[in-house]
Amino acid sequence: MDQIERLRWLDRTVVWHAFSQMAEYDGLIIEEAQGCWLTDIEGKRYLDAASSLWCNMFGHRVPEIDRAIHEQLSKVAHVTNLGMSHPTTIRLAERLVEVAGRGLEHVFFAGDGASAVEVAMKMAYQYWRQIPGAHGRRTKFLTLGDAYHGDTLGTVSLGGISRFQQMFEPLLFEVVRGPCPDRSRRPDAMSESEVCEYYLGEYAKLLDAHAGEIVAVVAESCIQGAAGFVMQPRGFLRGLHRLCRERGELLILDEIAVGMGRTGKMFAFEHEEVAGERLSPDFVCLGKGLTGGYLAMSATLTTRCVWEAFLGRRDEGKAFLHGHTYGGNPLAAAAGNAVLDLLHGRVGLEIIAERAQEFGSRMEELRGCSGVRDVRSLGMMGAVEMNRRESDGGIGTESSRVCRNALREGVWLRPLGDVVPILPPVVYEDLGWLFSILSDAIRK
Hints:
The chain has helices spanning about 5-15, 50-55, 65-75, 85-100, 115-130, 155-160, 160-165, 190-210, 235-245, 305-310, 330-345, 350-365, 395-410, 430-444; strands at about 30-35, 35-40, 45-50, 105-110, 140-145, 175, 215-220, 225, 230, 250-255, 285, 300-305, 370-380, 380-385, 410, 420. It is α/β, with parallel strands linked by helices and about 450 residues long. It has two domains: about 5-60 and about 350-444, Alpha-Beta Complex (Aspartate Aminotransferase, domain 1), CATH 3.90.1150; about 65-345, Type I PLP-dependent aspartate aminotransferase-like (Major domain) (Aspartate Aminotransferase, domain 2). A seven-stranded mixed sheet has the order 4-12-11-10-7-5-6, with helices on both faces. A four-stranded mixed sheet has the order 1-2-3-15. It has a three-stranded antiparallel sheet with strand order 13-14-16, covered by helices on one side. The chain is globular. The relative contact order is 0.15.
């Protein structure tokens, strides 16, 4: 057995891969990467058209991020954030507060997206137990149909995708779940604004039926990723924010996949803002692109109102008793600061928004391909939904074939049910070549 064969054998028999049937596993082993390209152990190159699972914002070996990590490594790689901190981490927190605005003045660092959502959930729950006049009836979260917020037991409870939940159902807590606000699935006679009002009406009913019981409303911003890149009707998030404000409910926005410039704005919920109406969620959860896909880090941003509910004497027991060993890691924070530098400099939001226009046009050209059910995109995030052919194997069969065809031509994608997500790094310029490959992969 040569070295390559041994690596493949070990990868199939020792390494346990996420969301993979290991009895049939046969994945790529990447040796190195440069720019938007991955190189495997046999020297074959692939365009990273999934941005290493939606997180690699600017490609690989980005000089600014490499340099920031190297400089930080020459000082210290890690210090705990229990009783101490580091200037690099403090600076990142300050900058996140600056770019967020809207009263989001405090940052709690964790390691991954699910952890950031767990932090928001636990903070919201404890908040209601520590503010004057509150009571203990608030024990439920209101979530969207087909939601996905991570794979911890808490975030799986919030989720609404059965294949991620069924096995663990006895361990999950009850939530109040509304319908999936999907702008693509609507009666022909109903306009997008009408379907938006329909969904908002359903959520208003749920909020009223469970008045005084809701800890927080939890929603992915604009796009429900794991649901199949479901696009919410325009105005839905804005309307949901308004419902929460009118009823005094907390709002948690999950921006793990869509935040940090991926959609052409720093936060995806900014697409929902109109003149005179800025969204001011109580919590915003960030991850994935926060470090440009370099290191594991997530952040939960919240308001002074929430922060102050946790202040008091030590013996009052109001502290937030939650933490992560690598929360606020200086190396990750250095990468995060470099990402913000890029978004305010060489790869600014205006540049991403301009490139997103061509990306959206190219996506629309795929709509006419045989076998395509729907095409949708926002910023530099796109998805092609394939028709399902039950006779050929059911869910995911056609999307998997598209991904295999693209891989043969040097484009790496990962299917999601019947959907093919398309998320190249925001710096990738040769969109004509990429979409030519995609068109051929669909046709074949």
